[in-house]
Design goal:
With about 100 residues, this protein is mainly α. Helices cover about 25% and strands about 5% of the residues.
């Protein structure tokens, strides 16, 4: 309401945030409670998680992985079945390496 005595407060991030991820880059908190499929595709955003795209823990061999492409996107790692993208062109990004190197 426009006359609320206390402004709306953002809730704390959900405890399951390490397991939640957004499946689209168009997530917006204001659509999370509209009753459509936005909540299902935007679990991290709708649960106030800091990290929106979660690929899991970094691979143990991250020191040996690189990205060939300059614009690897973590979201594409989740939604693509293109093995060349996952295991070749963007292996470091798709393996959740903290500082993907580019070759």
């Amino acid at each position: 309401c426009n006359n609320c005595p206390v402004p709306i407060k953002d809730p704390e991030p959900h405890p399951d945030c390490p397991n939640l991820t957004d499946l689209t880059e168009s997530c917006d908190l204001k659509y999370c409670y509209t009753g459509n499929s936005h909540m299902e595709r935007c679990m991290a955003t709708c649960n106030h998680c800091e990290k929106k795209i979660n690929l899991g823990p970094p691979h143990a061999d991250c020191d040996y992985f690189t990205d060939v492409l300059p614009d690897c996107r973590p979201l594409k790692c989740l939604i693509t079945s293109d093995i060349i993208y996952l295991e070749g062109e963007c292996k470091a990004t798709c393996s959740a390496c903290p500082n993907p190197r580019q070759t």
